[in-house]
Amino acid sequence: MTVLSVSNLSKAFGGVKAVQDVAFSVAAGELLALIGPNGAGKSTCFNMLNGQLRPDSGIVNLLGRSLVGMKPRDIWRLGVGRTFQITATFNSMTVRENIQMALLSHHNALMSLWKPANAMYRDEAMALLDRVGMADQSERPCGILAYGDIKRVELAIALANQPKLLLMDEPTAGMAPNERVGLMALTAKLARQDNIAVLFTEHDMDVVFAQADRIIVLNRGKLIAEGSPVEVRANPEVQAVYLGSGATYAGEGH
Amino acid sequence: MLTVEGLNTYYGRAHILSDLALQATAGEVVVLLGRNGAGKSTTMKSVIGLVPAESGAISFDGARIDRLSPHRIARLGLGYVPEDRRIFTDLNVMENLEVGRQKPRDGAPTWTPERLFELFPNLGRMKDRPGGRMSGGEQQMLTIARTLMGNPRLILLDEPSEGLAPVIVEQMARTILQLKAEGLCVLLSEQNLHFAQMVADRAYIIEKGRIRYSGTMAELAADAAVREQYLSV
Amino acid sequence: MLANIVIQFMNGLAGASSLFLVAAGLSIIFGVSRIVNFAHGSLYMLGVYLAYTLVEFFGRSSIFGFWGGVLMAALCVGLIGVLIEIVVLRRIYRAPELFQLLATFALVLVIKDAALYIWGAEDLVGPRAAGLRGAVEIMGKRFPQYDLVLIAIGPVVLGLLWLLMNRTRWGTLVRAATQDREMVGALGVNQSGLFTGVFFLGAFLAGLGGAVQLPREPAQLMLDITVISDAFVVVVVGGMGSIGGAFLAALLIAQAKAFCIGIGDVSIFGTVFSFSKFTLVVEFVIMAVVLVVRPWGLLGKQQGVQRGAFMVEPPLYPLNQTFWIVVLAIVVLLGLIPFGGDNYLLVLLIDIAVFALFAVTLHFLMGPSGMVSFGHAAYFGLGCYGAALALLKLKLPMELALFAAPLAGGLGALVFGWFCVRLSGVYLAMLTLAFAQIAWSVIYQWDAFTGGSNGLIGLWPSEWLKNRAVFYAFALVLCVGSILFLWRVVHAPFGYALRAGRDSALRADAIGINVRRFQWFGFTLSGAFAGLAGGLFAFSKGSISPETLAVSRSVDGLVMVLLGGVQTLTGPVAGAALFTWLQDSIARNTEYWRAILGLTILVIVLAFPQGIAGFTKQVAARIGVMRREAV
Fold first, then answer.
1. How many domains are there within chain A?
2. Residue A84, domain member (yes or no)
3. Which end of chain B is more exposed for a tag (fewer CB within 10 A), N or C?
4. How far is C520 from chain A (nearest CA, A)?
């Protein structure tokens, strides 16, 4: 089942065409990787999907519903979870409270002036933390966690509103190589369990080739390749503009 | 050329580096390998003076530098390239280079913008472009070029391959080998073992702020147990 | 008619130059040091005073004497800037932004009293410029020669600054340091030298701006606050860090002021509109409009997050039973005081209760909501006037009139807040200042309704509250109750949503939180309770004046919160108590209470850069660690 479908997506900044006529789709339970050189338009593409940027033209549909022109917070309410390239969590709160925030918002309970927030949706929050393996750190302030752990907290936040689609912008940036594959393996497991469609950008080819079901390649704002990891890896154009000789990564395919 | 002995560094109460010791000699490329948060960046920042060392000795060419401020250390010929690039985004390429400029130095290659544009031809084609309008790869080149303008004898490169496309990473490796050929000493931190193997002569593995392993790249390549234990590859 | 317009235009140009000089200095200092220098207006004031003295000294009748005096005055102010940088600011570059602000507030107080000591309280009228005392004829109107020189000074300085910033190595380094000063240091540039140089330049420009105004306006002690708020407006309208923007904004504002004065009273459909009175608010109206349309100013850019200056706040502890028992005990203790204390003590305690509530409402904005207000007194003052007018004009009984206080404060915050939450950081703070100034000048000028500068009298509480001790108990219950309610809100989902928006607006938005709406409601809630504090204040004093919403009252509030520490809930209460007590006891003993207060603040800032409550918390944490380590 197709969860996200994108077609003719375009965006220009002051005459520079950042994204041109991009089209792809993601199915439930599928991990789709978006790769390409720095400045190829990946972030622009991403920000048009999550509502940060409005496309100049094109169609973005989530389960048949158009997302164009919607605000990020409304897109979230339709079931789109996000993680950021540079982690964004609430650093003055504990790990559990971070998840509780997402739950409070999901249950439209934020306007209360009286009930202590700390006690609300506690069990649900703990259950989510358990799924990403962070339950034992639930009472620590988010601001002092190790980077890899913050990434897992973000994943739990993203899961709080039972999303149909996860958008992950360079989910493993800044992590150690072994943690990277671990995080994406966890993501893949959760996505398959809950039937969530995942779209992610990534520079670590070991992660991409190990975890992506399908890959699309963007160069200078245009899609230049699409296919399975094996196909993309063998594509001479992709090798020339992006992958290089393959000397800087090892990644074996599935 | 660079000697670190018994280095201890704290952030608040957190003990980041404990009794760290390492050396780098002229003309070699040394790599610090380790996970995120192992202390690689803190080691670099301690050497350049951005994070004050609690105890220990850092010497550059036989002179103690561990109590000096960053600008004094930099003026001794120690160049620092931070992991997050820290380009001056409002300044154009030429101005970014100007900020890094220092006097020519004995025993170190002397760099001019023209010479740097031979090393990084891309930059030469965008002299007037503000740093903020460059791609990640171009910014990474500029941050190295900017540091070279100080005519350093030793250059600290903090995770130069992070977040770059594989083709650019390969280009970065060639650049580092060129710098080595110029006679520069390079100390870099890396998580990408493949990249490290392309450029480095020797490696230290750092974990939880301590040096756990040191050896030549060839020795490390032969020691699967060490790689498994500390690098999980 | 045309001649009049031309002359007004020329007047505007002459006024713009001095404004531009001050604003450019402020902008350059902010760019590199990220310090919002509240003392910049004080440097301007020193420029005027020093020029007065030095021109006398060099001989007012010679051209050399005049211009030599002016230049020497500017140089002296530059050196004073260097002194301030080396002695105070250099030590707190790594402290949180708000603490730097507090330190510069303290400098304002110290410099004001120093000027009072040296030059006295009387206005000093300066000489006219030697050789330029005459006037030229423009389209049949006379225009002072000196003003022609002033008109030229602005563009000349703009040109020189542009060359300095874009064509010299020093300028390139300054621009680089504006973005990332630590990196500049790591590239081998001596930052301290650069910073000191920048402070010299900024202070020199402020001093010059003041000195050249000597023939046009007398030296007086109120200049610091008026000039700093003008300069803020110019910098914000032009865009932080943009010198060209500051020039444009100075022109725009000086022109608008000149034309308001030029138009004077105009009769439209029988009603007289006084444009000259409008000069007081016109710049703030311009700023409000510009900021809503272009949030980063005319030529400004969005400010990046400053590196390393972020302090991560610890998580909130739930309000547990022990907390409530302690609060109850303190309240009972405070309630028992009237039985042993004299009338004087009661007055002080009522003040402390009222200002504790005021400080807590400001902290509610600055802490959990992440919005710094430079004009919080507006809501306090609106509360005062709301209650007073309900009592005097609507003839409501006092108990009902008191309800009008939070209503007025909340309504004001609802309207002003709608604009303010569109901005963030320093820009938001400046806009709150602008709105407070607008509210102040409306009340100040609307003689018929608000009593104008005389204020309103005869605000006595009902019969049953006439006894001081009873009124104290009444105020105590209301203030403590309100404070506890606000703390409860901080711990409730609403307060968490505010903190979420502050910690990461990006993440908050990504989990469906409408950050701006929460900030707007939070702003209103804070304003309503500040209004209640104002209402209680009005009835405790019996009379009110526009002072209740003046800038200095907003500054008092900031000092209270910062003294106590932004990171704790109880801090503002401690800060308010300490500040009110200090101000009261020092002011009774010396004419120079501002200087003593300022020096006290400086000592506290330099010694405890996290506030008093933050400091005690730190000590407690350290003891806790030692215990744990000992086990």
1. 2
2. no
3. C
4. 13
Min distance C489 CA to chain A CA atoms (Å): 5
Name residues 173-202 of chain B within 8 A of A (Cβ): 173, 191-195, 198
- For chain B, what is the domain count? 1
pLDDT at position C311 over 70: no
Segment B59-100, tens digit of pLDDT: 999 999 999 999 999 999 999 999 888 999 999 999 999 999
3-state SS assignment for residue C230:
helix
Highest mean pLDDT pick, A77-91, B9-23, B163-177, C192-206: C192-206
CB burial of residue B218 (10 Å; 0-12, 13-18, 19+) = exposed
Task: Identify whether A225 is part of a domain.
Answer: yes
Domain that holds residue A27: 1-79+163-254
Q: What is the pLDDT of residues A176-196, one digit of tens each?
A: 777 888 899 999 999 999 999
**Cβ pair C443, C450 in contact under 8 A:** yes
Confidence at residue A65, expressed as pLDDT on a 0 to 100 scale: 94
3-state helix/strand/coil string of chain A: CEEEEEEEEEEEECCEEEEEEEEEEEECCCEEEEECCCCCCHHHHHHHHHCCCCCCEEEEEECCEECCCCCHHHHHHCCEEEECCCCCCCCCCEHHHHHHHHHHHHCCCCCCCCCCHHHCCHHHHHHHHHHCCCHHHCCCEHHHCCHHHHHHHHHHHHHCCCCCEEEECCCCCCCCHHHHHHHHHHHHHHHHHHCCEEEEECCCHHHHHHHCCEEEEEECCEEEEEECHHHHHHCHHHHHHHHCCCCCCCCCCC
Q: What is the domain extent for residue B220?
A: 2-231
Q: Do A75 and A96 reside in the same domain of the chain? A: no
Q: Which of A134, A161, A188 corresponds to the end of one domain?
A: A161
Long-range contacts, stretch C62-68, CB < 8 angstroms, 24+ apart? C62/C130, C63/C130, C63/C131, C65/C130, C66/C127, C66/C129, C66/C130, C66/C131, C67/C129
What are phi and psi for residue A120, nearest 5 degrees?
-90, 140
Instruction: Kindly state whether residue A228 falls inside one of the protein's structural domains.
Output: yes
Residue of C nearest to B71 (CA): C188
Give the closest of B70, B91, B150 to C175, CB-based.
B91
Structure tokens that stand for B148 in this block: 């070279």
Residues C395-431: pLDDT tens digits?
Answer: 999 999 999 999 999 999 999 999 899 888 877 887 8
Establish if A85 belongs to a structural domain: no
Say whether residue A135 is in contact with chain B using an 8 A CB cutoff. Answer: no
pLDDT, average across residues B142-151: 96
Chain B interface mutation, best of C187, C243, C311, highest count of B Cβ atoms under 10 Å: C187
**Contact (Cβ atoms closer than 8 angstroms) between residue A9 and residue A19:** yes
Query: Same domain for A59 and A175?
Result: yes
**Angstrom distances, CA of residue B13 to CA of A150, B9, B66, C622, C625:** 21, 10, 20, 10, 10
Instruction: Write the CATH number for B81.
Output: 3.40.50.300
Looking at the structure, do residues A19 and A62 belong to the same domain, yes or no? yes
pLDDT band, residue C614 (cuts 50/70/90): low
Q: What is the pLDDT of residue C628?
A: 44
CATH number of the domain residue A50 falls in: 3.40.50.300
A220 in contact with B, Cβ within 8 Å: no
- Boundary of a domain, candidates A161, A186, A202: A161
Is B88 within 8 Å of C179 when comparing Cβ atoms?
yes
What element of type H or E holds B205?
strand B202-207
Is beta strand A31-35 parallel, antiparallel or unpaired with respect to A197-201? Answer: parallel
C371 contact partners, CB below 8 Å, separation of at least 6: C365, C420, C421, C424, C428, C519, C522, C523
| Domain boundaries of chain C, sorted by first residue | 17-221, 348-453+479-581
Chain C contact probe: residue of A105, A155, A165 with most C CBs at under 10 A: A105
